[in-house]
Design a protein that fits this description.
- About 2% of the residues have low confidence.
- The strands form four sheets. A five-stranded mixed β-sheet has the order 4-5-6-1-11, sandwiched between helices.
- It has 553 residues and is an alpha+beta fold.
- The protein has three domains: 79 residues, Non-ribosomal Peptide Synthetase Peptidyl Carrier Protein, Chain A (Orthogonal Bundle); 152 residues, Chloramphenicol acetyltransferase-like domain (Chloramphenicol Acetyltransferase, 2-Layer Sandwich); 191 residues, Chloramphenicol Acetyltransferase (2-Layer Sandwich), CATH 3.30.559.
């Protein structure tokens, strides 16, 4: 029964009370998905994510699950999982076959077209204060790569087709630089970090994990690691925050790490993904997307420059902060309307896009975790997919209803996230246009990031955030933009504000225009936080154009 043992384990709470509510205990959509997966494992029934929102109290959800399974609500026994019939999923098991995932193949093809691309560079940089054992740091990353074999991947051409090669060791991946005696150690470190973030990957020959450790003072260091997106994704911070401290401590103490053995590796997932897609288990997902995205509109935003016929993916990031008092009020609004902060921030973005374009039917992309199977939860690799959220913005809808409508859109999409986005594009017959991606022109990325802690060394502030604003964003390549606009919002467990940024295509927009978009978004967030009653229609929030957009096309 999905009572306290499972929920307590996922939430990190030993014994949550039966009448406590999932979201009050720190639950979010990612953990909710894990709950749904565990329930399916045990009972053979796939529930909707929305069910957990409709029955947020632990005891109520447990009763609902038992009722839907046709079991007594107080039944203590664990029923045998039931087969879901001819569309049952293949088993995810370890194997020896070297197979690339569909996402890795797509990135490999892009590299063949544009070998110099840095679009898939994922740099992360932070400052560490306190004593740091350099050799233990190197060993920590080495052991991580030996544990997660995908970090030792290369993608090579065999008879013109992509093939996976696994290195026996991480290779020459680690660089240590001591600039503490430089005239300006901070400036010297800034330059090294910028060079490392922009250095392209040769996916056939280079280590796809690079680590740079810089000493700027005896007890102050800058740690930067850059991965290729083909071996890493947005789910990594949660895994790294658990494993890196233990791997570091083990190196310091000369012992084996106390981490559970990984039952599978990423290539096992790649094989499983192919088997899953070869069967009929995801046919219902394709049917959902065909229906949802039928006659989907393209977003028609006002631009400063004509859309080019060929994208170069050049872009820039403008950072901003949603201050703590505003975030506190937005969290209250979310709780009052039984939605998450993610939904509130996305809804405000939808209002902005609708205001800018005049459209009331929008497509906004958002990444998914892709870790639907329990065996994938602790595995590094590229699991992310994209879902196209078709968001309605009807002006006469009350704010509270609009938020819940957005919540339903998100949860339905997450319930149908396993089918790769490329398959969705083909299935819906999306018209391809020169200079733009199919279906999606803008995206919303929301991250919840843990703190990194190593023994005797404390994670401190962002490094050089005033001069190198891109350092605020984990895993964002420098000087690029995959889409027209991408709004990134980041909640960090050690900060009460929200770190945010707008990545924009410099082929379409000027910096002043992007700054105007941010100003308008901040204005909308303040209106939601302080002014707009949940029972009032959202029409008033759509009336005012964003600063600087009047008359542009």
């Amino acid at each position: 029964m999905p009572r306290r043992p499972v929920l307590g384990e996922l939430l990190g709470i030993p014994a949550p009370a039966p009448d406590s509510e999932f979201f009050d205990l720190g639950g979010n959509s990612l953990i909710a998905l894990q709950v749904i997966n565990r329930v399916e494992e045990r009972f053979g029934i796939r529930h909707r994510l929305l069910d957990l929102y409709e029955y947020p109290a632990i005891e109520d959800f447990a009763r609902f699950v038992h009722s839907s399974a046709g079991l007594p609500t107080a039944a203590p026994a664990s029923p045998e999982p039931r087969s879901t019939g001819p569309s049952a999923r293949p088993e995810l098991v370890p194997g020896d076959e070297l197979v690339m995932s569909f996402g890795q193949q797509r990135m490999w093809f892009h590299h063949q077209i544009d070998p110099a691309t840095t679009l898939y560079n994922q740099p992360t940089v932070s400052r560490l204060d306190g004593h740091l054992d350099v050799e233990a740091v190197r060993g920590m990353w080495h052991d991580l790569a030996m544990r997660h074999e995908t970090l030792r991947s290369n993608f090579v051409a065999v008879d013109g087709a992509p093939a996976l090669h696994i290195r026996p060791d991480p290779g020459d991946f680690f660089t240590f630089a001591d600039v503490s005696d430089a005239p300006d150690p901070h400036a010297a470190a800034r330059e090294l970090v910028a060079q490392a973030a922009r250095r392209r990957f040769d996916v056939a020959n280079d280590p796809l994990l690079r680590v740079l450790l810089i000493r700027i003072a005896p007890e102050r260091h800058v740690l930067q690691f850059t991965t290729h997106h083909a071996v890493n994704d947005g789910g990594a911070p949660r895994i790294l925050s658990r494993e890196l401290p233990e791997l570091y401590a083990a190196r310091r103490e000369g012992r084996a790490p106390r981490l559970p053995e990984l039952p599978i590796q990423y290539r096992d997932y790649a094989i499983w993904q192919r088997r899953l897609l070869a069967g009929s288990a995801l046919d219902h997902e394709l049917a959902y997307w065909r229906k949802t995205l039928r006659d989907a509109p393209r977003l028609d935003l006002p631009t400063d420059h004509p859309r080019p016929t060929r994208k170069t993916y050049t872009g820039h990031m403008l950072p901003f902060t949603v201050e703590e008092p505003v975030v506190e009020r937005l969290r209250k609004l979310a709780a009052d309307e039984s939605v998450t902060l993610f939904v509130v921030l996305l809804s405000a973005f939808n209002l902005l896009l609708s205001r800018l374009s005049g459209q009331r039917d929008l497509i906004v992309g958002t990444p998914t975790s892709g870790r639907n199977h329990p065996l994938l939860q602790d595995l590094l690799g590229y699991f992310n997919s994209t879902v196209a959220l078709r968001c309605a913005v009807p002006p006469q809808t009350a704010l509270g209803d609009f938020l819940r409508q957005t919540r339903a859109t998100v949860l339905e999409a997450m319930d149908h996230q396993e089918i790769p986005f490329d398959r969705v594009v083909s299935a819906v017959g999306a018209r391809r246009e020169a200079g733009r991606d199919p279906l999606i022109d803008v995206s919303f990325v929301h991250q919840e990031l843990p703190r990194y802690e190593l023994a005797d060394s404390r994670y401190s502030a962002f490094f050089d955030e005033e001069r190198s604003t891109i350092n605020r964003f984990e895993g964002m390549p420098v000087g690029t933009a995959k889409l027209d606009l991408t709004l990134i919002t980041t909640v960090r467990e050690y900060r009460a504000d929200v770190t945010a940024g707008l990545e924009y295509s410099t082929e379409l927009f000027t910096a002043d225009t992007a700054a105007g978009f941010i100003s308008a978004y901040q204005e909308l967030l303040r209106a939601l936080a302080y002014e707009h009653d949940a029972g009032r229609p959202i029409a008033a929030l759509l009336d005012t154009p964003a600063p600087g957009t009047e008359g542009r096309r």
